[in-house]
Amino acid sequence: MADFLSTYGSLIVSMILAAMLGLSLYLPLMSGQLSLAGAGFYALGGYIAAILSTKVFTTYSGDLYPVSYVLIEMIVAGIAAGALAVIVGILALRLRGVYLALATIAFVEILRVLSLNIDITGGAIGIFGVPQPFGTPIEYLWIALPMLLLSMLFVYRLERVRTGRALIAIREDELAAESIGINPTYHKVLAFMLSAILAGCVGALSAHVLNTWNARQGTFDAAIGHLAFVLVGGSRTFAGPVVGGLALTLLPEALRQLAGINGLPPWLAQFLREGRLILYGLLIVLGAINFPQGLITPAMFKHHRAAKDPTT
Amino acid sequence: MDATLLLQQILNGLAIGSVFALFALGYTLVFSILRVINFSHAAVFTLGAYFTYALTGGAFGFNGLLANAQLPFGLPFPVALVLGNILAGLTAMGIERLAFKPLRARGADPLLALVSSLGVAVVIVNLIQYLVGAELYTFPAETYGALPPAVNFGTAEHPVQVRTTQLIMFVVSLVVLIALTLFINRTKIGTALRAVAEDETTARLLGIDTDKLILLTFFLSGFLGGIAGTLVGASVSISGPYFGIAFGLKGLAVIILGGLGSIPGAVVGGLAIGLAESFVPGQYVAYKEAVAFAFLFIALLIRPQGLLGRAVIRKV
Amino acid sequence: MTDAPILSASPILSASSVTHAFGGLIAVDGVSISVQRGEIFGLIGPNGAGKTTLFNIMTGLIAPNRGKLFFEGRETTRLPPYRIAERGIGRTFQNIRLFGELSVLENVMTGRHTRTHSNVLSGVLGLPAARAEERATRQQAMQLIDRIGLTDRAHVRAGSLPYGDQRRLEIVRALALEPRLLLLDEPAAGMNTREKQALSDFIRQVRNQYHLTIVIIEHHMPLVMGLCDRIAVMNFGQLIAIGVPAAVQRNPAVIEAYLGSRKFVDR
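Above: the input entities. Below: the structure tokens describing the complete assembly.
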């Protein structure tokens, strides 16, 4: 077991981080907003952690970077991402559908170009040598796993209270929601902000996990990846993006293992190793056409909920 | 301000702007018929460049499944330009059948079509990388035959140099734009296209074969986009399979600025953004990339229907 | 037989010279109306007369080009729809707008939004006040659901209900708002005579039980005549008659609007 954990430690951590990024895309989706801005906030969070840990929090005892500092960075990243999200959100969330998606793409690209050109972010090269709070990759689970569980719990609770209902009502029929007194802009910005905070925190932790950070982390490609989590995993329940994130991060590794099987024709082996993104793309197309609600549907959970309700 | 510098920047801006316009028209054509944004357009742009490069006899590099592949013949540039982009147009038609038609048949939300086309773009770009690697390719030097490398529009003392490639970009774009406009406005098929863009149901009731027209539109958009890609690739270089993506995002900025679904809007928007990029002062040239996105963001906030689009009235 | 409406000196809702045009088309042309507290007020007219547009203006979906609106004495002309709902105006839509994927219960619970206050943090953390509010919301929603006989289908997807039930669900969702004014846009559309009568009784009971004022757009004449205390008639965006049903029925302009006339009528 210990062997397995040490070999696959970083994979497991990556899977958990990806699950959270899927969840962060789910939040604006709850109110019907397709936002690709999560990648931008993820990049922002990473830069904040990278800069703080390499330039500000440079004095500490021992070899390992204190975990408490990592938590502080995550809080700073969360606040910064949240604040930026509120500003951008108030501006952009009056837009709908395609227009909103485009605006979020533009936002991500502007951030990327900025990060490529400002000194403090290390320009195109980025920031290296982000210190490690743990000796082995698997130990990151001490932070990542509780984070995932807490965010899942948060979304689970959110869907069952007033605010969550308002978000879903907006997704179902914004006009009708507004006519019963739900303020659409407030709620959309709220969902957007929560999603940004989560993405920012994940970014901050990721900077440590990856030991380096650069503008390639917050690209359009990354946003597509997150979109794939939701498309494949499911967009109607929070478990969907989580499963999508776990599965799609596991997939390339699983494929690489498959490629190592004896007797596989070399072109197939090479494809499995390197053609991962082609597969992502195909999954997105197939997902959009055949399973717009993703693989994990609310129907799977419905009968549980009804049984638990005391009023039936 | 120095008059020659100004003229230079204007000409540069117009050259790249005309290519933006050409590329953006691909989006516009599809949007006006289907009301969806075709994200795979940028990938077809890229394909056009690669196809044409291959047809001129260009060799592919060390990486990828087709390493060192090279066609046994090399066609003259104008021929390769047309043939390669016919291939691009056909690819676009294939994309329509596979990624758009199933959604259209179900009356699905346009956002799903956007996502589906996004997936196609990812597949194509990565397929290119898988097949021929991510290296940079430049068109062979003889591409433009005996033409001089640059033309001087100014005088000997105040030279205003325009590279031949830029001139060709501008001229080809202009020719294609004029041809397209004539086609849309003066031919029967063009009129049918406009009818479908206006009101698909009525057009179908009038006996217009909307299905075939949609295929034609995609072919045209692929053809135009591929030409734009070839022009950019020939003028600078094909910097790798992703060179279309940044262009693609800028193309979106163009159509939002000009107005979704408006052909003149695409032209105006393209030229506007081309000029804006050209006028970015020297020290900020790194931020040039962000100009188009800043335009896009601001346009979306202030006037989502663009400069020449019509405001959409929501019916309750 | 109707209960006597509770009249008071000042109208609960008044529109003053409200005008709105879409491009070249004038949808609502200088309409002025006062609705008295407690009455059931009918708004009728041929298709395209501007009735739904007037509703949309009253509920803030559209800001009129000219004119003002007042609710309970306060101006509402340029308020967004959610603020108008907060002030106490609820509505239903011509093409039913339920939250189809949500359950019957969840639909009505969302109606309680403006009468509840727990924010995202207190809700997610499950603080005592938020929990209590959640229980109360559920209870009040169930009461309304009981009223329309959907108790045993409270967890069914709203979109899967039969048409008549969906209509009544939409009304009850608006009631969850605790409005003082309810705007109903063709609530009886698509119903047979028996269902229309049942709906008519339902609307009257609701008005009495919740002390509401109701404005209803309707096409079916017997329903309108039997239910409404007063009627306003619109045609081509203009108000052409207003008064008690019996009087309006005899008004020549109204007859002409509905039946057409070869004579050119001077205004």
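Note for the figure: The longest strand of chain C covers residues 25-35.
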